[in-house]
Amino acid sequence: MNSLGELEAHIGDCHRCSLGDTRTRLVFGVGCQDADVMFIGEAPGRNEDLQGEPFVGAAGGLLDELLKSIGLHRSDVYIANILKCRPPGNRNPLPSEIETCTPFLREQTRLIDPLVIVTLGNFASKFVLKTQSGITRLRGSVQHAGRFVVLPVFHPAAALYDNTKRDMLFADFARLKELLEAGAEKRPAEPVQQNLFEW
Ligand code: URA
């Protein structure tokens, strides 16, 4: 695959799992193919399912504020989810759904080739880092997955009514700004290979 457009066309009107039968719109992802930072959330919620764009509800409003606090706008970054379709009633993604859907996320990540991946919440952090550690323990710590620097943070939805988590999210975004300013120095120096990361 050479571009996000090609990947999106390949995914098409996906019915590779049963979420294809219940979703309104597939939420491919949004942002800039050259982004230095890629955010990975869990799965589309109700608003995202209706609009076809990730993080457009209340949690998305907080994500926009967090981006603004470090001088970024969503058009500067890339935003995707573990799953591209909404699980009914916002239930947790099933292992089989993750297995079916995440090859597309990997390909998306390979095409964007960000300096930093920010995993939003437990689900994305556990998946990307292949860890059982919870987000409360991981948040704000700089990790690696393959050739990517990974910064796990709380999911913005978890911080909407929790000021302590909200403060921690703003602090972790300040850390993200530092990581981005340090730029490619922080990146593991392996050559670009076909399989860019192990997860
Ligand atoms: N929560 C997520 O994890 N992703 C979205 O796109 C919206 C809410």
Write structural notes for this entry:
The protein is about 45% helix and about 15% strand. The protein has a six-stranded mixed beta sheet with strand order 1-3-2-4-6-5, sandwiched between helices. The protein is α/β, with parallel strands linked by helices. The protein contains nine helices and six strands. The chain has helices spanning about 5-10, 20, 45-50, 60-70, 95-110, 120-130, 135-140, 155-160, 165-180, and strands at about 30, 35-40, 80, 115-120, 145, 150-155. The protein has one domain: Uracil-DNA glycosylase-like domain (Uracil-DNA Glycosylase, subunit E, 3-Layer(aba) Sandwich). It binds uracil (URA). The site of uracil has 11 residues, from loops.
What attributes characterize this protein structure?
13% strand, 43% helix, 199 residues, alpha/beta, binds uracil, 9 helices, globular, 6-stranded mixed β-sheet, Uracil-DNA Glycosylase, subunit E
What is the first-to-last residue Cα distance? 19 Å
Give the tally of structural domains.
Answer: 1
Class by helix and strand content? alpha/beta
CATH homology group:
Uracil-DNA glycosylase-like domain
The hetero molecules present are: uracil
Helices, strands, pairings?
Blueprint: H1 4-11, H2 19-22, E1 30-31, E2 37-41, H3 46-51, H4 58-69, E3 78-81, H5 95-112, E4 116-120, H6 121-129, H7 135-138, E5 143-145, E6 148-153, H8 156-159, H9 163-182
Parallel strand pairs: 2-3, 2-4, 4-6
Antiparallel strand pairs: 1-3, 5-6
The structure holds uracil (URA).
